[in-house]
Amino acid sequence: MSDTDKTPDLVLNRVFNASSDRVFRAWIDPQLLAQWWGPQGWTAPVCELDPRPGGAWLVHMRSPEGHVQVMGGTYHEIEPAAKIAYTTFVKEGERFMVEGLHVVTLEALPDGRTKLRMETTLLQLAPEWESARHGGMQEGTNSSLDKLEAMLTV
């Protein structure tokens, strides 16, 4: 079985009061992504995106206490206003703590809103990150999506 055939570890569905073009842009524009990426209270002082198949992305998330978590990965599929598939890694020092595959699909709704579906499949997980599989990843992603929702309603 390939990694893409695995059952996702996390599936989130959200509806945003914004067009699919606007939601898509928030995922691929580094200035916009930096405003909402990361849990509540965290910032993204480094946000570099090359949103095309094979392009890389890199984000440094900073906690309220000043801890910096380096994340990055590769884009695999980009369909404007419809789909983004990308891998993610989280490193601490030179050690990979987690690697995942994310597929974000956007559906334009008749009323101008957008339904987002995010499926995350963990490909590699360090033992000390096992809590990510059991709620931490869902909590953090939901917090980020809350920030995205707030940004889109301004």
Can you give a write-up of this model?
With 154 residues, this protein is α+β, with helices and mostly antiparallel strands. The chain has a single domain (3-139), classed as Alpha-D-Glucose-1,6-Bisphosphate, Chain A, domain 4. It is built from 3 helices and 7 strands. It has helices spanning 20-28, 30-36, 130-152; strands at 10-16, 43-49, 56-62, 68-79, 83-92, 95-108, 114-125. The chain has a 7-stranded antiparallel β-sheet. A hairpin with a 5-residue loop joins strand 3 (56-62) and strand 4. It starts with 9 loop residues before the first strand and ends with a helix. The model has no long low-confidence stretch (mean pLDDT 90).
CATH C-level: Alpha Beta
Largest sheet features: 7 strands, antiparallel
- Cα(first) to Cα(last) distance is 44 Å
State the strand order across the main sheet: 1-7-6-5-4-3-2
CATH architecture: 2-Layer Sandwich
Report the CATH topology name: Alpha-D-Glucose-1,6-Bisphosphate, Chain A, domain 4
Query: Could you say which overall geometry the principal axes of the C-alpha atoms support?
Result: globular
Mean pLDDT: 90
Q: List the secondary-structure elements in sequence, H or E.
A: EHHEEEEEEH
Number of strands: 7
What structural category characterises the helix and strand content?
Answer: alpha+beta
